[in-house]
Amino acid sequence: MRPRGSTAGWLAAGLVSAALIAAIVLRPGPSGGGAGGSAAVAALPAAAQDFVTLALAVFLESLPFVVLGTLISIAVRIWVPSGVLERALPRRPALRRLALSLFGIVLPVCECGNVPLARGLLQRGCSPAEAVTFLLAAPILNPVTILTTAHAFGWGSEILWARVLGGFVIANLLGWWLSTHPRPEALLTPEFRASCAHPPGDAGGRLARSADAFLAETSQLMPALALGAVLAGAIQVGVPRGALLALGADPLWSVIALLVLAAIISLCATVDAFFILSVSAAFLPGSVVAFLLFGALMDVKMIVLLRTTFTGRAVAQLAFLTALCVAAIAWGMNLAA
């Protein structure tokens, strides 16, 4: 008998397929319309066309990483023998968090794909503080992210090293903060706590358990990813980007502007350096770092994905403290420039 999550998982998989078909139908062709889809696109108002394009772009850019993260998560939970991961990590909490924050070097998955992997770590017995430390550090210490940032700004750029070291420090700082919580289990949603308390049994073998786990994870994460993409598309259409870019010369307001822009655009951490490079001449270096840090740590789709695992209050606190840490680093760089 399949778990209840499997039915929802098949529905989520259907929604993903529908989104892919829609992307193909609405994809612009050489003359501005897709094959068979140009009439549908042309019938939409300009703002609606922008919304559809942006929402699908965010969703489809993130989808492969979410799937990859889910597969790695299942490998960690089901295929890695019990005790192997635990023995490989240091016993002291601070050193465990430090080691987990470096996992992104060997697990090149972007921020949205790290959510299912963090869920897998929690289900293996890691604490919320340890999972969040990994979750925040991994997208920035991802070697692909480092290489693309270096390609955009150069290996000797202060922007590159401020991004790498800033992400590492913020992840470990917020991990330490979470470790002081008197009831860390209260940071997790009741539904996720229940899934940790009642893991899938051994019936059916590892392949069957992996398939059920994949469907259960997609039933949780795909609707959240779709909602995050819709919100990102709606905000991008509704918020005038020119107003944000007009604040580029002020040491503080430019930081705030690019924090907001990073959350709105919701780009993958592996490509966001090329986006901000096109407008970086209008901003101070610290403000560019604010965009590169906050976008990788806490954008709109990331916040929605985190709500599949953490309570609304925990996510709000994490988002606020992340923004505060990023702003402090970026503003300090601008003042020193």
Chain-wise SSE layout:
Elements: H1 4-26, H2 38-43, H3 46-79, H4 84-88, H5 93-101, H6 111-123, H7 128-141, H8 143-153, H9 158-179, H10 190-197, H11 205-238, H12 241-245, H13 253-265, H14 272-277, H15 285-297, H16 300-306, H17 312-336
Task: For the structure shown, list the relevant keywords.
337 residues, mainly alpha, 17 helices, globular, disordered N terminus
Please compute the radius of gyration using only Cα atoms: 20 Å
**What is the number of beta strands?**
0
- Give unreliable regions as ranges: 1-10, 30-38
Rough outline: globular
Distance between the termini: 63 Å
How many DSSP H or I helices?
A: 17
N-to-C SSE series? HHHHHHHHHHHHHHHHH
In short:
With 337 residues, the chain is an all-alpha fold. Helices cover 74% and strands 0% of the residues.
Can you tell me about this structure?
- Helices cover 74% and strands 0% of the residues.
- The chain has 17 helices and no strands.
- The model is unreliable at 1-10 and 30-38 (pLDDT under 50).
- The chain is an all-alpha fold and 337 residues long.
